[in-house]
Amino acid sequence: MHDPTPTEGSTRTVSRRRLLGTAGATGLALGAGGAAAGYAAGHATAPVDHAPATPLSSLGTNRAKFHVKHQPGILQPAQAHSHLVAFDLAPGSGRREAAALLRRWSTVAERLMAGEPAPHQDTAVARDAGPSGLTVTFGFGHDFFTRTGLEKQRPVALDPLPEFSSDRLEKGRSNGDLWVQIGADDAPVAFHALRALQKEAGAAVRLRWHMSGFNRSPGATARPMSFRNLMGQVDGTNNPKPSEPDFQQRVFVPSDGEPAWMAHGSYAVVRRIRMLLDDWERLPLQEQEAVMGRRKSDGAPLSGGGETTEMDLEKTDAAGRPVVPMNAHARITRPDQNGGAAMLRRSFSYHDGFADDGAPDAGLLFVSWQADPLRGFVPVQRKLDRGDALSAFIRHEASGLFAVPGGAAKGEYVGQALLEG
């Protein structure tokens, strides 16, 4: 899907490398935003309005800029392929080593996003492709500040998320000192970036966890359409748009915000949410729609209209019962049901094989962006935790919260204001 609103730092350019075979490159533009309230169970992103489909032959030329006000990978449409990876600083690594690492990583990201080879020992995995919409985003976890002696610079907004009764979190696949989000419209380009950043890390950090995801490719449907998640539901209908007057204040830390090094940055909540697809797929269609509060065919609210029609929460059936059930996911997550809480979601589906009983290990790599998690993710997830009908069909298995500073100016690296301030 393609957001009609121009996204920051995205241009169409031809790579300096020869573009070979890009007609077969795959990608997904899920929409530049996330959702207005939290499918903290996680919707992937999709815009409401749709621009013409991007020809497949142009996917390789799509280039996102590295030096922008907000780091790349937040406002750009979610791509077809992603890697989310967290690292911990190695014993003996501190502020100096972290600064050197972020400088190296920023150099690598800038080059790869421009379609250039990695500066050292390039693997040639992406040699025949263009930039393919590659974005690389860096963030800091809670314990990073302790290990670098920067506790006084740790934002209050980075305090650990509260526990939720539905959580089944695995410690080894949660949190981390450093977080990297990689997205690209071509799978080898995304893997190339992952491998280059891992090799550039050297002995400064140790891998904590890695997750890979995917989305629909542009051109896969007859026209650009809202994304469907692995439950088959139309997803992301109520995503906030950059054109909305309060978009910036909901998603990004203001230029005069605290701490100063987080100016123009955002906070990323990352959740691995398994969908219990065997249970879900046994539900009759009518019951699935009651759980969601929307028609499965087109995403329209059960109260009537089309996908973008405002839901009528007061409408009742002949028996006087709410047409949209009181515990329907779409009712609970509406911003007006959560004090206006909103977040920008930019998520990816995942499939990591099957359990011994044949059940798929599949679901959503939920990524939401907000200026303050306590005003974005937390209030919505608390309400979902108390009575969302969807909760019986999902399981939150991993979680992380990361402070993602603003973009690096030309000649600087991401996080420089923190590490050298």
TrEMBL record:
**Which PROSITE patterns has this protein been placed in?**
DYP_PEROXIDASE, TAT
- Identify the domain of life: Bacteria
A Pfam family annotated for this UniProt entry:
Dyp_perox_N
**Reactions catalysed, as given in the entry:** heme b + 2 H(+) = protoporphyrin IX + Fe(2+)
Q: Please give the name of this protein.
A: Deferrochelatase
Organism placement in taxonomy: Bacteria, Bacillati, Actinomycetota, Actinomycetes, Kitasatosporales
Claim: Kinase is one of the keywords in the record: no
The residues covered by the Dyp-type peroxidase N-terminal domain are 71-215
Q: Where in the cell is it found?
A: Cell envelope
Q: Which residue stretches belong to region Disordered?
A: 291-310
**EC number(s) reported in the record:** 1.11.1.-
Cross-referenced InterPro entries: Dimeric_a/b-barrel, Dyp_perox_C, Dyp_perox_N, Dyp_peroxidase, EfeB/EfeN, TAT_signal
Protein family according to the UniProt entry: Belongs to the DyP-type peroxidase family.
Q: Which PANTHER family match?
A: DEFERROCHELATASE (PTHR30521:SF4), DEFERROCHELATASE/PEROXIDASE (PTHR30521)
Question: What is the role of this chain?
Answer: Involved in the recovery of exogenous heme iron. Extracts iron from heme while preserving the protoporphyrin ring intact.
Keywords of this entry: Heme, Iron, Lyase, Metal-binding, Oxidoreductase, Peroxidase, Signal
Organism in which the protein naturally occurs: Streptomyces chilikensis
